[in-house]
Amino acid sequence: MFEATIAGSLPKPSWLAETHKLWPQWKAAGAELAEGKRDATLVWIKAQEDAGLDIVTDGEQSRQHFVHGFLEAVDGIDFEHKVEMGIRNDRYKAMVPQVVGPLRLKGRVHATEAQFARAHTKKKLKITMPGPMTIVDTVADRHYGGGEEGRIAMAMAFADLLNQEARALEADGVDIVQFDEPAFNVYMKDVNVWGLRALERAAQGLRCTTAVHICYGYGIKANIDWKKSLGEEWRQYEQIFPAIAQSSIKQVSLECAHSHVPMDLIRLLDGKEVMVGVIDVASDVVETPEEVADTIGRALQFVARERLLPCTNCGMAPMDRDIAVRKLEALARGAELARTRYG
Ligand code: ZN
Question: In this predicted model, what pLDDT tens digit does every residue of 83-121 receive, in sequence order?
Fold first, then answer.
């Protein structure tokens, strides 16, 4: 009960990459970089196990950014000529690569880190990938003709590639494949028209557990400012959860700690396993186990305890490493306390 896990990413050690950045530069190259990525993966598997988490991830140590880490393995994308694009409905500007031809995987995307992580932990292992809608929102289209039709065609093409990699991850022994869809909280209408269909296509045929992470973004300034504009109650989930509840995706991850999401929206996910965000990634204040257990207690009014997984609100990539470790410990201890309180 209350299997504790994280959304996915963890900070990169300062010897591997720039710290406190969403798009950090690597500090090594070639074989040295590859070795550094493996070492950092091992560091974080150990840290998650030591903290007492039940489901661990590779901490996304092998990718520069959660979307571009996937795109780098795709043929048909021009990384040489990036263009500036307003993403997440123009919430912030990013330099993004361009889709310039038919999309095809060059080979495996996350084989190295997944197989390496699998070989070094007996815990349940989760690997994350960006969802199709979020990818489409983080890349420029020079091939699919633009407009809604172009976006949908491109999303379905990416969904097929994600599915190909997800099946391979399952064969690697990964227990949970999670798709990150922060765009779901921005384009709610599109989620119901095509976003969810693309997500299910990415997950089709998988026998391992499938999950979707939907959040209000990393704790960076543009996101914090955006959250301030959303008012007292954040009801975005209300427009998409009913459809997600009907979908084939098994687990849903959402923000709860220090967010303005009305907790009763969890009710709309009837039948799903719910990863309840009990750790705020936009604050350096480390939660106490009591606070974590309290948030779990509030969520328990709306989801059965067998289906509640305490989690972080979002990834921790841009955080301070030491604080991230202490937050992992708070998460695991809070879940433990909740087992005594509500078990
Ligand atoms: Zn997130």
Answer: 999 888 888 888 899 999 999 999 999 999 999 999 999
Question: What is the amino acid identity at position 289?
Answer: P
Helices (H) and strands (E) in the chain, counts: 11, 10
**CA 60 to ligand 1 centroid distance, Å:** 13
**274 alpha carbon to ligand 1 midpoint, in Å?**
15
**C-alpha–C-alpha distance, residues 173 and 175, integer Å:** 6
Cα(281) to centroid(ligand 1), Å: 9
Query: How many angstroms is it from 31 CA to the middle of ligand 1?
Result: 30
What is the whole-number distance in angstroms between the Cα of residue 74 and the centre of ligand 1? 23
pLDDT of 217 above 80: no
CB-based contact 272:244 (threshold 8 Å): yes
Taken in order of first residue, the domains within the chain and their CATH numbers are 30-342 (3.20.20.210)
Q: Is the pTM of this model over 0.90?
A: yes
Q: Give the residue carrying structure tokens 């699998």.
A: 118
Sequence letter at residue 243: A
Q: Is 25 helix (H, G, I), strand (E, B) or coil?
A: coil
